[in-house]
TrEMBL record:
GO terms of molecular function: aminopeptidase activity; metalloexopeptidase activity
Protein name: Bacterial leucyl aminopeptidase
Record keyword Protease present: yes
Endpoints of the signal sequence: 1-21
Highest rank taxon of the organism: Bacteria
This protein's UniProt keywords: Aminopeptidase, Hydrolase, Protease, Signal
Family annotation (Gene3D superfamilies): Zn peptidases
EC numbers for this chain: 3.4.11.10
GO terms for biological process, alphabetical: proteolysis
Naturally occurring in which organism (per UniProt): Chryseobacterium taklimakanense
PANTHER family, alphabetized: METALLOPEPTIDASE M28 FAMILY MEMBER (PTHR12147), PEPTIDASE M28 DOMAIN-CONTAINING PROTEIN (PTHR12147:SF26)
Record domain Peptidase M28: where: 109-319
Pfam families: Peptidase_M28
Length: 339
């Protein structure tokens, strides 16, 4: 009886600590360390270059950025959901609406996909928007290096990290969808389109980790290793615990919950693409660096990014996604959305 009690106790202890167990293996470590300053910087100087013309929704500059993203996935050997037949999910002009009386051209969400080995029907969605606001009347380019070039390149690095693990024989147990959404800047339209036309059922979507601006610091946090996390326990107490455990075991950032309140005056919980998952009862966490002096200005340029901090924040999202994708049990949905 005593021996049986010890075994049961040990099993229970392992279960309670499961959020830390996946970070000890070589596959995780090598994949985690494959997220580098050099790669993030190289990709961001392309995504946020004048050549992309500010990546306005449906513009040729945005489409050029999309082709660059896809080209990098093809080099990595990362593919797309078979049901789509390509990396593109078309978002039609009629859905996008008009600007100053003129219709937006058709645009596209871009989807990369790594199929799970044990529970492929269950899905972790990691998202960021790759559009920005184009040019001003004087023809100056809004490069959007932080908003959301930083999230865009973070997704590319996370996709490569999961693919590296797959090559090492440690593909995730659950599937991972890398979702680059369009039209965030005109009202979260690309993510809304995906949520209303999901490639995989939302009922099978375990969680959404959304990245929107993680390359800079606001005045309040200059010099700090931090990230704002918004909404992580709004729908699931598991999600917040997993994110905190991933941080404790790996990146050791300060997780700042200042905006983690649906009643906050800035209403940031409602202002990025995670909300189109949350309102459909999918647990979501939003990673954010705050409002800085170059937000939505022509001075949001790649030379102003803190690449070391961008790397750490990207690694945190990857580590959180790793646990979500590989843990035995799907996270609980035990909270309620606020509206």
């Amino acid at each position: 009886m005593k021996k049986r009690f010890v075994l049961l106790f040990s099993a229970g202890l392992l279960t309670s600590c499961a959020v830390n167990l996946g970070y000890e293996g070589k596959a995780f470590k090598k994949s985690y360390e494959s997220i580098t300053v050099a790669d993030l910087k190289k990709h961001l100087y392309t995504i946020a270059s004048d050549e992309m013309e500010g990546r306005n929704t449906g513009s040729e500059g945005q489409k050029k950025a999309g082709r660059f993203i896809i080209g990098e996935y093809q080099k990595m050997g990362v593919s797309y959901p078979k049901a789509l037949g390509s990396f593109y999910q078309k978002v039609p002009s009629a859905y996008l609406g008009t600007r100053r009386g003129n219709a937006y051209p058709d645009s596209e969400n871009i989807l990369a996909y790594i199929e799970g080995t044990e529970r492929p029907q269950e899905l972790i969605v990691i998202s960021a928007h790759y559009d920005h606001v184009g040019k001003n009347a004087a023809g100056e380019v809004y490069n959007g290096a932080d908003d959301d070039g930083s999230g865009t390149v973070a997704l590319m690095e996370i996709a490569e990290a999961f693919n590296n693990a797959k090559k090492a024989g440690k593909a995730p147990k659950r599937s991972v969808l890398i979702l680059h959404v369009t039209a965030e800047e005109i009202g979260l339209v690309g993510s809304r389109y995906y949520s209303e036309n999901p490639v995989f059922p939302l009922a099978n979507t375990v969680a959404n980790l959304n990245i929107d601006m993680i390359g800079r610091s606001d005045k309040e946090n200059e010099g700090k290793n931090y990230v704002y996390v918004i909404g992580s326990d709004m729908l699931s107490t598991d999600l917040k615990k997993i994110n905190e455990a991933a941080n404790s075991a790996n990146t050791k950032l300060e997780l700042n919950y200042k905006y983690d309140d649906p009643n906050d005056p800035q209403r940031l919980y409602y202002r990025s693409d995670h909300y189109n998952f949350a309102k459909n009862n999918v647990p979501a966490a939003f990673f954010f660096d705050g409002i800085h002096e170059d937000y939505h200005k022509t001075t949001d340029d790649p030379e102003k990014i803190d690449y070391e901090l961008l790397k750490k924040r990207t690694q945190l999202v990857f580590a959180t996604a790793w646990e979500l994708a590989n843990r035995n049990d799907r996270i609980v949905v035990d909270g309620k959305n606020t509206r």
